[in-house]
């Protein structure tokens, strides 16, 4: 079976790796410059910066086993940051015993490992699909990408809905799936400072425009200079989705001053808008979806409760359902 997978994030990569092991021919397409999706660290002259996923945990036995393999191979490392919480009562330490992992040397390393030698086409946004009842034809900017007996979409909900719009009348299940709201946005701002700021490596922020702060240098493999990454909350990010970068950076500096209680002088700043970042808490969880009549599968964090682990589990589940 020749199977096309759209999306080289952790869900698409996990699905591709399983299907390849089962002897199928897999071709993966991604619109990004490289594999990783929301798990990508940004490469800068000073080193890698994590702007998207910050770390991942492993609660299921299956993902714990996968993480164990990655740890042994050096694909990931443990991240034992000193954690704090900023809430209505101020800033206070909040240590816990959760095992947290990060990719090495960059967050996307596990995705790259899973894809191995699988045929991967980056810079390739799939923008049109045709299905003749037996085969899927994929197109990018009018160019045909090939014919496939099965199609997997491992992309955020809103992007999958847009691509599958012409097929919704044929599948009430798809229409229902897409009716709920899914991934919420997140503005990310990285601020380089001259001086060390706070005696913590990361801060969970509550009841505030920010939701998370992390010191990049506290993570093995990342930029050594004093860089702080700030994530704005879903509510703030949605409200300011179309704001200019200048406005968002200004808000980030104000927020960092508020939390640290110190004046901030930014040496450099970097801003990234994640339009589809994290799953809405109330979204129904189905793991993955396979529609045999359409020879179509869907995987991704948005179908399985959000987070890296759940995206991986979703990709693995879809691979099992596809070959039954
Ligand atoms: C700011 C932020 C912070 C996060 N923090 C954490 C965290 O701390 N811990 C945690 O566990 N999770 C975190 N997450 C969530 C985690 O990153 C995701 O759950 C996981 O990476 C999703 O993987 P995925 O494969 O489902 O989707 P993605 O990683 O989004 O992969 C989808 C891929 O599809 C590609 N694509 C989309 N449309 C097309 C198209 N038409 N044609 C071709 N390619 C296409 C994209 O380029 C992308 O590479 C965070 C996410 C964000 C954005």
Automatic annotation (TrEMBL):
Pfam families: Amino_oxidase, NAD_binding_8
GO molecular function terms listed in the Swiss-Prot or TrEMBL record: oxidoreductase activity
InterPro entries: Amino_oxidase (IPR002937), FAD/NAD-bd_sf (IPR036188)
Domain Amine oxidase: 107-322
Superkingdom classification of source: Bacteria
Protein name, as recorded: Amine oxidase domain-containing protein
Naturally occurring in which organism (per UniProt): Rheinheimera pacifica
